[in-house]
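Whiteboard transcription, Tuesday session. T.W. wrote the structure tokens on the left side:
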């Protein structure tokens, strides 16, 4: 059973698990972002860790002035009281789950664990130093199971079932953060990303990018999608739209100049692609960002 079967036609569901006897989890959410929306303003969660698990698509989050480009099967995590948002980046089409968990500063039972077990889990989560790392497909399954339990009124042992799934989910997050492959981008893929960053006006073929990575085309495509979350061609296009958004909001360059500087064949084609990703024309986006 998929999340669509569980929540029906709704595209955004927020649950306060205090309603299920778990006040330490004030938010369990799923967001099916079918169109682009405005930027996520900077905010904090007092005393709560926030965990975002991306299923598909891509979102950019910012923490301390640093950007994190989060794609499929990647985790974005912010510690309690740490300001974060999406900076100047719009919220793009995507599917992701997220969770807020209260981390007690002193021994206190959470998720039906003993005081000592609760403190060990809170210390492990609070000790995660990375804001972004690779996830585990079992995490998606656990999120789906949580929603299935929540939408099964009168289910026997509902609170215990939810707390056991939450505990397993959080333990898997800790394990993912400690893996040797938790770094989302390997050295050969970083060379490709650096190449794309240095040449915003170009479109590179898969063969060209594979050569830069020192991999065969088939292996490069598979590795790129596994690590970055989307195919190379889509990444290039999304990167160009991100760059265009920055130029529209921060410079007075004309739409035509921006289009050509990013390798688009015409300003009309650029405007079409830009609106597909942002739901605004370049002119509308510039006006709304100022």
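and on the right, the sequence the group agreed on:
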């Amino acid at each position: 059973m998929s999340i669509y079967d569980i929540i029906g036609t709704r595209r955004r569901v927020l649950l306060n698990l205090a309603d299920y006897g778990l006040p330490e989890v004030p938010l369990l959410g799923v967001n099916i972002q079918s169109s682009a929306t405005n930027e996520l303003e900077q905010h904090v969660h007092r005393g709560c860790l926030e965990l975002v698990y991306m299923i598909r698509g891509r979102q950019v989050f910012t923490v301390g002035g640093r950007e994190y480009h989060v794609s499929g099967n990647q985790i974005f995590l912010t510690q309690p009281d740490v300001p974060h948002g999406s900076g100047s980046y719009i919220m793009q089409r995507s599917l992701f789950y997220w969770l807020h968990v209260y981390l007690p500063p002193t021994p206190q039972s959470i998720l039906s664990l003993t005081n000592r077990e609760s403190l060990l889990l809170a210390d492990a989560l609070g000790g995660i130093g990375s804001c972004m790392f690779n996830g585990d497909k079992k995490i998606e399954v656990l999120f789906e199971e949580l929603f299935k339990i929540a939408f099964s009124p009168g289910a026997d042992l509902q609170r215990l079932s939810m707390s056991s799934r939450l505990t397993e989910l959080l333990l898997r997050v800790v394990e993912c953060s400690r893996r040797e492959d938790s770094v989302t981008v390997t050295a050969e893929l970083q060379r490709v990303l650096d190449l794309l960053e240095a040449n915003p006006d170009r479109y590179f073929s898969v063969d060209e990018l594979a050569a830069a990575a020192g991999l065969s085309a088939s292996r490069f495509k598979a590795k790129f999608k596994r690590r970055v979350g989307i195919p190379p061609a889509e990444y290039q296009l999304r990167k160009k739209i991100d760059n265009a958004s920055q130029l529209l909001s921060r410079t007075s360059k004309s739409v035509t100049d921006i289009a050509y500087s990013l390798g688009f064949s015409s300003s009309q084609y650029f405007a079409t692609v830009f609106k597909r990703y942002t739901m605004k024309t370049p002119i509308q986006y510039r006006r709304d960002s100022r």
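Someone added at the bottom: The longest strand covers residues 48-63.
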